[in-house]
Amino acid sequence: MDDFSSKPGVPNMFGVIGAEANKIEPNKRMLSAMTPTIVEKDGKLFMVVGTPGGSTIITSVFQVILNVADHGMGMQEAVNARRIHSQWLPDVIIPESGSLTAKDSLKLVNLGHKITPADRLAVLMPSWCCLMVN
């Protein structure tokens, strides 16, 4: 039931804020970050990416696509790579352990970002389901 908004405008345990449309009532819709993604390259299927993970789904899918498309990783390497999660609310960066250097963390803090301990990430970033077609 946490995917519904128990009180519109108030964040759930993951910091996601629901609205009137997400109230726990008949004919309402639950909050969702589902992002099944099909990527084409030169007009042909390149990869299909999807994942469970609640509020981390969007950033996780995005990072896997970037790792493959921009960083030249294979799909399994991209899936296994350490990730960083950030969402609008709560306005914090949640890096997986070892994903940010101390220097990069300090730069982000100096820019005004808040970084949350990585132990929360185990709850937020579960297993993946991806397919890459060459």
Structural summary, described in words:
By secondary structure, the chain is of the alpha+beta class. The protein is 24% helix and 16% strand. It contains 4 helices and 5 strands; from the N terminus they run E-E-H-H-E-E-H-H-E. A 3-stranded antiparallel sheet has the order 1-2-5, with helices on one face. A hairpin with a 6-residue loop joins strand 3 and strand 4. The radius of gyration is 17 Å and the shape is flat. The termini are far apart. Mean pLDDT is 84; it is low at 121-129.
List its traits:
134 residues; alpha+beta; three-stranded antiparallel beta sheet; two-stranded antiparallel ribbon; flat
Radius of gyration: 17 Å
Task: Tell me the structural class.
Answer: alpha+beta
Counted by DSSP, the helix tally is 4
Shape: flat
Q: Alpha-carbon distance between the termini? A: 40 Å
Overall pLDDT score: 84
Topology overview:
Elements: E1 37-41, E2 44-50, H1 57-69, H2 75-80, E3 84-86, E4 93-95, H3 102-110, H4 121-124, E5 129-132
Antiparallel strand pairs: 1-2, 2-5, 3-4
